[in-house]
Amino acid sequence: MRITAPAVSLNVTDVPASSAFLVRHFGFHEEMAANGFASLTRDDIAMNVIFLRRGLPTLPADQREDHAGGVILAFTVDDLEGELARLQSEGVTITMPLTEDAWGERAFQVRDPNGVIVQLLDWNGAGAPDDSVHKNR
């Protein structure tokens, strides 16, 4: 098997709201969009975030009404405190305050208008593993 591109697809009620949230606050842009569908990316990551409207008939019947619950969109960033301050200044509610785990991961979370969790993190804590391990994530 050869994987040519990674993506995460999330079922949400309001596709334009989730799309606009990633565009406005996280620098994504829409590559494609149609009724009930949006595919977003950034120039500095090689993956797409796809939003699908719940109930789409193109989804298998047992998935149509599922919601993106339990999924966390996690992005490693260079300036965690700067991103936290920027999002706060933009009026984004921080739903999990900045925390540091024993293994060195530091993170905070926000939620988009559909409840999708977006987590920003870094590995700059005191117990952080060798940085070269995480550059390939």
UniProtKB/TrEMBL annotation:
Gene3D superfamilies: 2,3-Dihydroxybiphenyl 1,2-Dioxygenase, domain 1. It comes from the Bacteria. InterPro entries: Glyas_Bleomycin-R_OHBP_Dase (IPR029068), Glyas_Fos-R_dOase_dom (IPR004360), VOC_core (IPR037523). Coiled coil: none annotated. PROSITE patterns: VOC. Residues 2-123 form the VOC domain. This is Uncharacterized conserved protein PhnB, glyoxalase superfamily. It comes from Sinosporangium album. The lineage of its organism: Bacteria, Bacillati, Actinomycetota, Actinomycetes, Streptosporangiales.
